[in-house]
Amino acid sequence: xxxxxxxxxxxxxxxxxxxxxxxxxxxxxxxxxxxxxxxxxxxxxxxxxxxxxxxxxxxxxxxxxxxxxxxxxxxxxxxxxxxxxxxxxxxxxxxxxxxxxxxxxxxxxxxxxxxx
Amino acid sequence: xxxxxxxxxxxxxxxxxxxxxxxxxxxxxxxxxxxxxxxxxxxxxxxxxxxxxxxxxxxxxxxxxxxxxxxxxxxxxxxxxxxxxxxxxxxxxxxxxxxxxxxxxxxxxxx
Lengths: 116, 111
Prior knowledge:
The complex is a heterodimer.
Chain A lengths: L3 E4 L2 E4 L5 E7 L5 E7 L5 E8 L5 E2 L10 E5 L2 E6 L8 E11 L2 E6 L3 E5 L1
Parallel strand pairs in A: 2-11
Antiparallel strand pairs in A: 1-3, 3-8, 4-5, 4-9, 5-6, 7-8, 9-10, 9-11
Chain B lengths: L8 E5 L4 E6 L7 E8 L6 E6 L4 E2 L4 E4 L5 E6 L8 E9 L12 E6 L1
Parallel strand pairs in B: 1-9
Antiparallel strand pairs in B: 2-7, 3-4, 3-8, 5-6, 6-7, 8-9
């Protein structure tokens, strides 16, 4: 399976600032996915990042708030802009990776963001 | 997008089998059942998947009913490290379909 490195693993930020989360995959993948996990909640898909095109955002998420870059097939960034305490969450990067014919999602360890 | 229903929480004694049920009564013919788990402060981890036959790997067994409307994930000898939230998801294999995660089952393995 793919190995995904995310950084930062955690951060504490001030209201109104922005933070960029990086996701590095050890193999080339077509699509990369960004999820948010609010405290005590399940995972919610933010957007799908394809190399060479704009990200596709899910309902309730907009590019101005969560700009995404996908400069190549192994790397993506998610920026959380103009942060408020409501943005305190774990942000997870994920890729689809074949596993003996399966279509398995592999996740990074996540970036735990606390906004004061 | 077939929905799944899982109990909110379960507990199990260490060394015993943990049997986690999942109801997916609206599953369609080309959808597989996947199980993931999320240990606290980590990203979700793939466990196992199946279509209609029972499956077993080094982590767990998956039992799917004949009508495919429900399944059970079995951890044969649960350890404290198996304490996690377990997610049951249905999705087609292959393609670009992105699964959605429900609330899952919080399994607590106690000594």
